[in-house]
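Record type: monomer structure entry
Structure origin: computed from sequence
Chain ID: A
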Amino acid sequence: MLNFSETEANENEPILFIHGIGASRWMWWQQEKAFSDYPIILVDLPGHGKSVSTPWISLMGTTDLIAKDVLKNRAAHVVGISLGGHIALELAKQYPEKVLSAFISGITVTLMHFQFFLKLQSRIVQRGIHNDRYLHKIAREYYRLPADKTADFITNYQLLTSETYETIWKEIMQFHLDQSYGKIAAPCMFAAGDQESRGILEAVDLAPKLIPNSVGRLVPGAQHAWPVQKAPEFNRLLREWLDCFHGE
């Protein structure tokens, strides 16, 4: 079972926010405040946060859990970053009746090279996870977190096991868009910071060519974690996107 939280229903459709690898629902605190006029659903993915006791199996397995246990019989605007973006894409493909729109940031859509480096990469990540001084530096200098959010970042990041990390990355590295994604009917936004990796930048151009009713957007001066680092810019683009569905 997945652990999730939600705010009270109102006249707007709900927004489901899905975090990236090594994070949890904590990362969306700035969006939760900015979109308080919407019902907000925040979920912790398997192997993360308060869902840490639920093992990560696969993208499709997680997509099924979210569709059946979190969204249930309702539809939502789905917002996903990185790993969460991949899940948002799978929700739009596999459960079209549950996705009003998808706002997807920081994903790759072609096979990744150098997959043989995964074990080494995993060992490096695990060393960093157990280095409190390093994590405080990352929280301060990369994520630009306020002091009261640093503990959330470190506590949740340290839950990431090598097994969870490697299982997720093996699937992400092998992921690529094919013609089956062309059946997605929900409007999709594919966004990325212009300082992200080449593979992520390519996705902003490639995905809208295959998926109808979708657009791409590069964000100047933004990095992979821009929902946290540059929340005003992220919130402004997301607000513009949601306003498209309300005639504003």
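Annotation 1: The mean pLDDT is 95.
Annotation 2: The first strand starts at residue 4 and ends at 6.
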